[in-house]
Amino acid sequence: MLKISNLHASVNDKAILKGINLEVKPGEVHAIMGPNGSGKSTLASVIAGKEEYEVTEGSISFGGDILDEMDAEERAHKGIFLSFQYPIEIPGVSVTNFIKTAINETRKAKGLDNMPAKEMLKMIREKSEMLAIDRKFLSRSLNEGFSGGEKKRNEIFQMAMLEPKLAILDETDSGLDIDALRIVADGVNKFKSKDNAVIVITHYQRLLDHIVPDFVHVIHNGRIVKTGTKELAYELEEKGYDWIKEEEANA
After folding, report:
1. What is the pLDDT of residues 186-232, one digit of tens each?
2. CA-based torsion, 149, 233, 49, 28: positive or negative
3. Where are the alpha helices (DSSP H) in the chain?
4. Residue 22: in which H helix or E strand, if any?
5. Which domains does the chain show, CATH number per domain?
6. If 0-12 CB within 10 Å is exposed, 13-18 middle and 19+ buried, where does residue 99 land?
């Protein structure tokens, strides 16, 4: 589904990614961990097509399509979803109107008519119930005055509604209490299928108790330096990253 080959990327002429190689197949969950400043969020942003990041070498293909020349909107229409670490507020645009517009723009890009209103409302009701979202919440302006947990839950609601092929969750667990974490993780687990894939970027092993990864990758200094199973996340929780840095220095 996703193939990243020798990816180098920079922002403001500063090199951040220095040779990332990664393959993600349908049905898989990949967790990406690493110290602050190692390139985790940059990788997510580059896959999603954020303009401020410049790919200087290597390539990304998704479903057989080369993404290099596609803008963020085209990538979204292809089925790539990025859940933001810090979702922005959009006053005056309700959660419901935002998601209706997003869904219908994607349908339009595929040559389809707008989703019928009755079908849209049924889907909104089902997905909001799945994530324990109050219906009043859906009429509020997008992220305006939302708590951290509400913002993250709203991101997962958008993912559930858009049904992407690849969902990238950038530190969705940061700032969540245990109850909110369980609800968000439950939403992700209900979304998972043999036809889609999930990349989870996290600092903490606790999220991976709820969303169990097939692979855990450690990024350090802009490269994936170690890959393992969920047990690697427990090892990182217990020992930190210093041993990874030492292994890298001695390699």
Report:
1. 888 888 889 999 999 987 777 888 888 999 999 988 999 999 998 88
2. negative
3. 40-48, 72-78, 95-109, 117-130, 148-162, 178-191, 207-210, 230-239, 242-250
4. strand 14-24
5. 2-250 (3.40.50.300)
6. buried
